[in-house]
Amino acid sequence: MSLTVIVLAAGGGTRMKSKTVKVLHRIGGRTLLDHVLHAVHEVGPTRVVTVVGTQGEQVAAHVSKTYPDTSLAHQPVSTPGGPSVAYGTAYAVRVAIESLGTLEDGTVLVVTADTPLLQGAALKAFAAEHDAAQRAVSVLSGIVADPFGYGRIVRDADGDVEAIVEEKDATPEQREIAEINSGILAFDAAFLREALPRIGNDNAKGEYYLTDAVQVARDAGLTVGAHVIDDVMQTEGVNDRAQLAALGRELNRRIVDRWMREGVTVMDPATTWIEADVVLSPDVTILPGTQLLGATVVGEDAVIGPDTTLKDCEIGPGARVVRTHGELAVIGPDATVGPFSYLRPGTQLGARGKIGTFVETKNAVIADDAKVPHLSYVGDADIGEGTNIGAGTIFANYDGVKKHRTTVGKGARTGSNNTFVAPVRIGDQAMTGGGTVVRKDVPDGALAVSAATQRNLEGHAERRAAKLEREQVTRETTDPGLGPTDPGAGGS
Ligand code: UD1
Ligand code: CA
């Protein structure tokens, strides 16, 4: 059976007060539209059409990257001062169908693009029920505490849907109805083809209402049913930034809850943020104030946090990452990072390795058992197995024009407060003295020292004290103003 899904996204979302079109705002690491398209794809559609209008180019450019199999239909939109153009959900569906050329027999599912909590399972159950009942139209409805603004579901004595009445067209009694139209509808394709041309715009808003298809079906003696969704938040829309934040928090609560059920320990769900595409393993522990973003993956028994932000990072099993900010970094099994580390893109730390306190890394491949424990910048570097980098080491990768790489071999021990001026290589088992500035390659097994030879001046402290004493005596005898008595204070 053919399933065509039409996603309505032509509205601009003026209440967002944003230069970004509403459906491209993000929660949980995905745009609102991508959350909906994700759910839609779980139903296994034959084809998906997204109707874009206001800032349609922005939306089209985005969808062609995230869901390239989705086709786009462009609905003309009114511009201030310009001619008014046809508007309304029924008109948008017409635009979608025209863009397809022909609409195959089967089922058409219409969904709105601003309901980010929608899940594939709910949509699938709704479509299945619609197909099984062989209805002309089915409405996914919900019972809400405050139905203001929604289309109300008016049922007849048999419980079938008699009408969907929009807020502005509703009588006071109809406004009391708590069952609302979620905006998600299923149609028999043949019926929809016939019904659309019969929908007019003679209503309070002067719009072509898709919900008027209910009346067309009833007039033709066809049945219209409604399927009440239990989890009504799945159909809640975003209209302003406050709702964006509220649904963002709710989405996060659901994601964190799901991972806890999968065996992840989350000490403080309220301060833990996990985006939709993150993947965690059982027995991961997440400490308070942690954000796991993008395509971050964390292996078994790893402990992340407190106060850590990781975006697109891969953390190996058993690793420990404390108070760290990381992006596009790969941390090996049983490695330790932090506290206070800054992992920039291209950081790779091997098994049991260490990136310690106040260490910044970028394009740095640090092998198994290698350690950069304290106060260092490691940029454009390869550090060999088991090597230890001394405290306060700077990998000087930039000569003011170009970036260069530094290689440190295996089993090396470099001193504190070193500077490695790239391009340079420090050999296997090599050592460097404290304060060394390495400008030339250090052969395997060599010790490099560059600081000036230290001289010790014996008896310096005594000589210095004697000199200070002499200077004091000279001052007292030559400058009366600094003398022990004040001539102005009752003197002789
Ligand atoms: C619509 C429903 C209402 C339902 C509510 C749920 C109709 C007539 N009303 O009302 O019963 O309770 O959704 O949120 O369907 N859109 C287009 N092109 C258009 C018009 C709208 O793409 O010409 C898109 C909008 O971008 C939006 C969706 O369709 O994503 C719904 O449109 P909107 O104007 O918000 O409808 P509501 O008045 O909320
Ligand atoms: Ca709406």
TrEMBL record:
It is an enzyme of class 2 (transferase). It is found in: Cytoplasm. Its main location: cytoplasm. Binds 1 Mg(2+) ion per subunit. Keywords: Acyltransferase, Cell shape, Cell wall biogenesis/degradation, Cytoplasm, Magnesium, Metal-binding, Multifunctional enzyme, Nucleotidyltransferase, Peptidoglycan synthesis, Repeat, Transferase. UDP-N-acetyl-alpha-D-glucosamine binds at residues 8-11, 22, 88-89, 151, 166, 181, 239, 344, 362, 377, 388. This is Bifunctional protein GlmU. It comes from Nocardioides bigeumensis. The lineage of its organism: Bacteria, Bacillati, Actinomycetota, Actinomycetes, Propionibacteriales.
